[in-house]
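Hypothesis: this fold can be encoded by more than one sequence.
Test: take the structure tokens below, design a sequence, compare later.
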């Protein structure tokens, strides 16, 4: 730090916990410095898929303060959903690998309104498109998973989003999730690559 320039105030949180809102002396590696979106008033939605039974502890900090969380399937065990529900209201659908664990207790498709956005979710996007025309039906956000590849596509004002996979690395793809800021009633996605 150059002479005469004050450093950041000490983080108020214990080591390993985010301090949300206060400058952090442990920056740049502390979660509050890595993920500053948690410190503003912009509502956001946490979007995750294909965890396959692995819960990355970074989700706790990344999704803290979310208006809602969407899990687009291939969840794994119930502990994943319990941890996500502890952070924010959760919308979840079953993926193709969830049948042995969940049977028919998770829906294959779900609709939700989160932070004013009308959302439809299905694990396999092609399956959803066979039953719906999300643009014509007025959805703001269409979420799917399955491919393990993060992707976004805009179609006539509707965002089609795949957050990628937040589970253990598979298929040579990076581990990712999405944070969707809601600005002026519209979704603005950002992908986060997990370590």
């Amino acid at each position: 730090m150059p002479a005469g320039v004050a450093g950041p105030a000490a983080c108020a949180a214990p080591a390993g916990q985010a301090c949300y809102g206060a400058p952090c002396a442990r920056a740049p590696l502390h979660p509050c410095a890595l993920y500053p979106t948690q410190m503003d008033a912009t509502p956001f939605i946490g979007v995750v898929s294909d965890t396959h039974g692995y819960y990355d502890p970074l989700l706790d900090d990344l999704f803290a303060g979310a208006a809602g969380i969407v899990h687009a399937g291939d969840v794994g065990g119930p502990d994943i959903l319990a941890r996500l529900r502890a952070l924010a209201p959760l919308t979840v659908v079953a993926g193709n690998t969830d049948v042995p664990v969940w049977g028919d207790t998770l829906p294959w498709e779900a609709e939700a309104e989160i932070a004013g956005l009308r959302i439809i979710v299905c694990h396999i996007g092609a399956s959803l498109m066979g039953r719906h025309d999300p643009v014509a039906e007025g959805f703001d956000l269409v979420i799917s998973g399955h491919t393990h590849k993060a992707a976004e596509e805009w179609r006539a004002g509707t965002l089609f989003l795949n957050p990628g996979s937040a589970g253990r690395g598979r298929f040579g793809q990076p581990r990712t999730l999405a944070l969707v800021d809601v600005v002026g009633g519209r979704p603005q996605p950002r992908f986060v690559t997990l370590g």
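The mean pLDDT is 84. The chain has two domains: 1-34, 40-193.
Hypothesis status: open.
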